[in-house]
Amino acid sequence: MAFTFCPQCATPLVNRQEGELPRMACPDDTCGFVHWDNPTPVVAAIVEHEGELILARNKAWAVPFFALITGFLERSDPSPAEAVMREVKEELGLDAQGAHFVGHYRFERQNQIILAYHVPATGQITLGEELAEYRRIAPAKARYWPVATGLALRDWLISQGHQPQAFEVPDPRPKP
Question: Nudix hydrolase domain location, by residue (predicted)?
Answer without folding.
Answer: 38-159
